[in-house]
Amino acid sequence: MRGSGAYAGKYAAAVAGYRVGPDYIEAHRVFVAVGADEHGGRVLGFYSLVLAPPELDLLFVADEAQGRGIGRLLVAHMQSEARAAGIDRLKVVSHLPAADFYHRVGAVRTGTAFANPPAVPWDRPEFEFRIPSG
């Protein structure tokens, strides 16, 4: 996550102290995309689904794996997991460089999460996934 090009430069502060470790994984539903090809078992991406209140907390795809449909697969999996949990709407606060991705995969812009300095000194777009039943 901290090595992502999306969090380089001015965006580095947003993930500087962030850690996805055992405590985070124990508290949230975290799913991982693992390479089965030339990447042989490497983590290519992951997401975290928070059930209450329903939110996509994190979604990352490794820089070298972007453009291969992994993000779309993770979103489809997230929607399936949300549906199975009885969730019909799911919020995501987007990192600015990821906003176009969320729009392309069907999320609807619902507002703005305002800056929270010093960690996040910029406003971020808020989206919602509407999860169709069955």
TrEMBL record:
UniProt keyword terms in alphabetical order: Transferase
Sequence ranges assigned to domain N-acetyltransferase in this UniProt record: 23-134
Name recorded for this polypeptide: Acetyltransferase
GO molecular function: acyltransferase activity, transferring groups other than amino-acyl groups
CDD domains for the chain: NAT_SF (cd04301)
Keyword DNA repair annotated: no
Entry-linked InterPro entries: Acetyltransferase_Butenolide, Acyl_CoA_acyltransferase, GNAT_dom
Pfam families recorded: Acetyltransf_1
